Structure formats: C-alpha cells, structure tokens
Amino acid sequence: MPRLEFLDLPWDIRLIVYSSLLVSSSQIDVWPATMLCGLGSPAQSVPHSTIWDVSLSLLRCNSTIAAEAGAVFYGNNTFRIHGDDRDYRLVVHWLEQIGLKNRGYLRRLEMRVWIPLKAWQQPNGIRTDGVEDNYSFPCHPHLAAPSLPCPEGAVDVIDPLIETIIALVSRSGGRKLKLYLNLGPLDFNIVPGIIGPGIMGPGIIGPAMLAHGRVGPRMIQGPEAWLSMDLPNLVEKWRAEYTSDDRLRIVDILWTTKTDKKFFLDARTFIEHLGWQVLEHQEDEWYQPTDPPTTSSPASPPISLLLQRKKLTTTLVADHPYGYQSLSTKTMS
Question: Taking the mean position of all CA atoms in its chain, how far away is CA 257?
Fold first, then answer.
C-alpha cells in the first residue's frame, strides 16, 4: 500500500489543518523587532509574542503546501503594522516583502497614521519649513491651491509613502480588503478637519470649525495636534484611482479614532459635512466618572469612532492651515 502524503488528503481536510495551525486567535502585530522567515519574504517582521499559536513552518514547505498555507495565513488573519513616529517605511517594506500574491490574500490590515509634519504656508502660497525658509514643500498636485492671497499658517506635509501603501494593497488584485487607519498619538484624540477635546489633554479646535461658528475660543495646544482633511481626501483619491480597473480588488478604507462623547454629539453634523460617514460610535466600557473629573476620567465619556471618507464628487482643494493661534514661524522648529 503506497504511503499517504499530506497533499493526497482532500482539500477540505487540508484546509482544516491549515486553519488550525495558521489562523491566530488574536491580531498579528508586525514590528521591526523580531525577524522570522515567511512565505514570499526572506524576513518577516513579526514578534513571537503575537503568533505563539501559529505554525509558520508550513510557509516554508514545498511550493504547493507553502502556496496553500499562505492563502490561509494571509487571508484569515488580521495584521496590525507598527512603526516608528511618522515612519511608514516598515509598512512599505513588509508589503513588498510578502509579495504580490500574498498581498492579494489580505482581507484585514491595520496601520497607525501619525499626525503629519507641518510646513508654513505663506500668503503667496509657498510652503516652507518656517524657520530659515530654505526648503519648499509644494502642495500635492491632487490638491488645488487656495486662491491668493493664501491664508497663512501651519499646513500638513503628506508623506508620499502613504500613496505607495495604498497602491501596493490596491493593485494586487484578489479578495476585498478592509484597511483600517488608526489615528492619532496616544495622548490626545483626533477627528480630521476638527480637533475635539482630547481625553488626556485640553480641548483644541480646528480652524474650519471655528470659521463655521460651531465653538467659542478655548485653549489651543498647537498645530502639531492638528490633522487637516488633506490626508483623508488624498487617501480617498488614491483609493479611487488605484481600484478604478474592474480587474483590481475592492478596498474599503476605514478610519478609527476616539474623542469626547459630548463633543461628538455636538459636532456630528459638522463632521458629516466635512465628508465623513460615521459607521460606528461606541462608548468605552472602561469609563468610570469621578468627581471632580480628571484627565483619565473626564466628565464626558470617551467614544470610539469608525469613520469612512465619502466618495469624492468635487475637485479637491487644499484645506485651510491650522488657524486661530498666535504662532510665529520661529516656533515651527
């Protein structure tokens, strides 16, 4: 009687084996710390602590088993990519290293989005570093410049690697992908176009909201906490461009953030006016009010938001700079 090989088993049996060995019970975190070999990549950045229940050795078997295992591993896990402050090179590196086929298997991918660095927009529309004015940051070609004279102030400098990431996950074809962009540093919470009162700090207001008379003056933390609509607008523009071919995959880009519940309820109409669709809003379960309120337990509970930029229907115009602040260019260093 000939010996039964693994590939001689029916596909549904092999699928059960692959799923039991390759599907993690939790998210798989991709860090630059620990390097492990994987399918399509001589080195995958995945820490041991997040994949203790996954057997990656299947990804290094013969080509047939590796291909079948890769489809299950990349297609049935949630990958969360971490990186250093404002550094998207790890995301690009990992997506390139796993290869075109494996990118096509991905169904759910999460990555951190950082508040962009700032340039100083002058009345003539030129954007410089705001210190010596010796370096220019041109407005992205997809964004029409505001009419002259331009409002002066701090504007976002969009990292071109973000477009590379959108292109890599969109052009790979394959299954529908949900790309979650997690917003903000940990010590305050961001809604692009509006900055509400953060859980860990004083309230700060975006210029658009002040211009519409939605709120009165209050303490302002500075432009380093301001995320304009430029990045969400560009991300939606890139998503539409790179998925326009019917042969390419469907990509849903979802944004996650937290803010103050009372602020959200007051500002929801304006948030939607900016172009956001609020898909989910959920109050944090850990919230315990105190008297008096503290930064760790504010008067109004924090609320988690799941947002999606609505499809673009008009020409994109660069958002106004961070405004209503007495910020000199010398503070931009």
Answer: 10
Q: What is the mean pLDDT of residues 229-256?
A: 91
**Does residue 300 have a pLDDT over 80?**
no
Compute and round to an integer the Cα radius of gyration of the chain. 23
Q: Which two tokens stand for residue 197?
A: 């009162």
Q: Which element (helix H / strand E) includes 91?
A: helix 89-105
Query: 93 near 64, Cβ under 8 Å?
Result: no
DSSP states of 208-257? HHHHTT-S-------GGG---SHHHHHHHHHHHHHT-STTSPPEEEEEEE
Integer CA distances (angstroms), 313 to 228, 238, 242, 303, 333, in order: 19, 14, 17, 29, 37
Name residues whose C-beta falls within 8 Å of residue 25's C-beta, 6 or more positions apart in sequence: 53
- Phi, psi dihedral angles at 122 (to 5 degrees): -90, 165
Q: Please report where in the chains the tokens 């993690």 appear, as a residue.
A: 24
> Which DSSP string do the residues of 126-185 spell out, in sequence order?
-EE-SSS--SB-PPPTTSBPPPSSPPPEEEEE--THHHHHHHHHHTT-SS-EEEEEEES-
Q: Is the separation of the CB atoms in 224 and 118 below 8 Å?
A: yes
Total-model pTM:
0.81
Residue 39's region, left for phi above 0, alpha for psi from -120 to 50, else beta, is beta
Residues 244 and 218: beta-carbon distance below 8 Å: no
Quick check: 40 and 91 in contact, CB under 8 A? no
Cβ proximity of 224 and 153 under 8 Å = no
Whether the pLDDT of residue 45 is over 50: the answer is no
More confident residue, 41 or 271: 271
Look at 287 and 229; give whichever has higher pLDDT: 229
- Residue 229: φ, ψ to 5°: -85, 0
Is-contact 271 191, C-beta < 8 A?
yes
